Give the backbone structure.
Amino acid sequence: MVDELTQNQVFFASRVEYNKNSGGRNIAIVHAGADFAVRTVYMPTKWGIRVSVADKEGNLKQGEKIPQDVAGPCCFASDIIAHERALPFIEAGDYVIAHDTGAYYYSAYSYYNLRQAPPVYAFEETDDAATHLILLKNGQTAADTVAFFS
């Protein structure tokens, strides 16, 4: 059973594929949206998630915060996981981190447009205080998706 402390330590990170300005709005396009955050996309005021931005090296970005949208890969206009959020300017190659997106978000994963579910990792601290990533669940392959729908 996942307790609240563990659940709130979970995050989803996605590399920013590109950013654009459309209708006066800065929009960062990432590899996760309505497929992993169904309720956030359809009910953003009730299921909003915290997001932060890291640069290409993984360092949290600092600097002036400006309103930006973070949009997912699905092909409809409301595939937005963060709308008009004050964040440091997001650039292609940066990482968007969606916090508090644990078991519920993974269990509600949507196969819209046959998107494959991502892998799941955990951090493990060893006796020598090093931190390692451990693969808990493989990412889904195209063959897995075909088998799911067969």
User: Anything to note?
Assistant: Residues 1-5 have pLDDT under 50 and may be disordered. The chain has two domains: 4-112, 116-150.
